[in-house]
Amino acid sequence: MWIVFALLAALASAIVVTLTKAGVKNVDSNLAFAVQAVMILLVSWSVILGQGKLPDLRTIDRRSWIFLIVAGVVTCLSSLLSFRALKLGNASQVSPLTNLTLVFSVILAGVFLKEKLSWQVLTGAAIMVVGAIIIATSRE
Known about the structure:
Layout: H1 2-23, H2 29-51, H3 62-88, H4 91-98, H5 101-111, H6 119-136
Subcellular location: Membrane
Keywords: Membrane, Transmembrane, Transmembrane helix
Transmembrane segments: 32-52, 64-83, 95-113, 120-138
């Protein structure tokens, strides 16, 4: 089932890139992100409230809070940088580079989470790097 959710997330992300590129055309990229951030906040807390999960906030331990807060800050930085890249470049070239997050995630999972990385995972990551570079450096 996780594969279905992952593929739907990838599709949603592609739609976000397309809509964001259209949205930042005549808008400052930081302002555009701030608008989207408000919607993210409203939708995510609506889901929590709708599921009745608000009381679960008390069960989050200190270490998890730290990781989640730092991840939230990094998410904001990532989005700000992504929006700026989309403002300056073509979505078809920016997106492959921003999606090298897949490769960085594999590396970080191996280094920090101590996940075992098979040769298939490492080969796939290397192919993704080559593909992203080819797409990003292509001429229009």
